[in-house]
Amino acid sequence: MKNVFIIAILAVLLVACTSKPKETLVSITTPYGEIIVKLYDSTIKHKENFTKLADAGYFNGTLFHRVIQDFMIQGGDPGSKNAMPGALLGEGDTNYTIPFEYVPSYLHKRGAFAAARESDDVNPLKASSASQFYIVKGKVFTNDELDAVELKVERRTKQYIMMDLLKKEGKEDELKAFRQMTDKRDTANIRQIINKYRNAVEAQYMRTKPFKLSEEQRRVYTTVGGTPHLDGAYTVFGEVVSGMEIVDQIAAVQTDTNDRPVQDIRVSIKVLKDK
């Protein structure tokens, strides 16, 4: 009898050790179908915040308000629930942010689920929007295209360094002019001002970790695809496990000049229990 009891205990322990841990899955229902997203345990603050909002019905009735083919689809703006057709969206949020949770292995591959945020010039700590999120559609890159991505990120980083430098030195007029140049993508004048402060900008850039794609990143982006220039800049906290064909359909819809779909794409989001 004693041996039978011990065997029973060992059997229970074996099942407990080999059983697959529960995943946190959320369902995003759209007019095109359902998208299932798995949220990562390693980005716990983002996971807990998103499931809390979903359980409260926060996202229900919101829109995918920003859609860019070969890039991503974005939603979660509470102001989109009752927005008039053609209204500019993307400014709505909760009254708090979520601290940056960077996990280097969580890449912006096709299907990545990530938090939107304000830009580095006003948000240097990369804190996430508590409600706005995006799903990566992306594209497959060549290695030459990835070389160009590295250069693009370097230029963008130096622009933010330049703005921070002008702000700290109290050069408000020059800062305002520089921001206007970046908005207009006036690369010639941007380069001219950066060259004026070249030594200070280069010194600060080298104190940061220059953006360089690893072999693993290059493997992923030349096979699976994604949006590599966002790596390290935004918190990826999940991935699509079902319904990427729905993401593809949404990414292909007609949009206006603000990248808002011409026909509203309204969603409801819920946490799937006991998965």
Please explain how this structure is put together.
- This protein is of the alpha+beta class and 275 residues long.
- It folds into two domains: 165 residues, Cyclophilin-like (Cyclophilin); 64 residues, no CATH class.
- The strands form two sheets. An eight-stranded antiparallel sheet has the order 3-4-8-6-9-2-1-10. It has a two-stranded antiparallel ribbon with strand order 5-7.
- A hairpin with a 3-residue loop joins β3 and β4.
- α3 packs antiparallel against α4 and α3 packs across α6.
- The two termini are 37 Å apart.
Q: Return the domain count.
A: 2
CATH architectural designation of the largest domain: Beta Barrel
CATH first level of the largest domain = Mainly Beta
Taken in chain order, the helices and strands follow as HEEHEEEEEEHHHHHEHE
Strand content: 15-25%
Strand arrangement within the widest β-sheet reads 3-4-8-6-9-2-1-10
At CATH level 3, the topology of the largest domain is: Cyclophilin
Can you tell me the CATH superfamily of the largest domain?
Cyclophilin-like
Q: Based on Cα principal axes, name the global outline.
A: globular
The radius of gyration is: 22 Å
Parts with pLDDT < 50 across at least 5 consecutive residues: 8-12, 14-18
Note the main sheet.
8 strands, antiparallel
Mean pLDDT: 90
Number of helices: 8
The tally of strands reads 10
Fraction of residues in helix: 25-40%
Structural class: alpha+beta
Kindly, what is the distance between the CA atoms of the first and last residues, rounded to a whole number of angstroms?
A: 37 Å
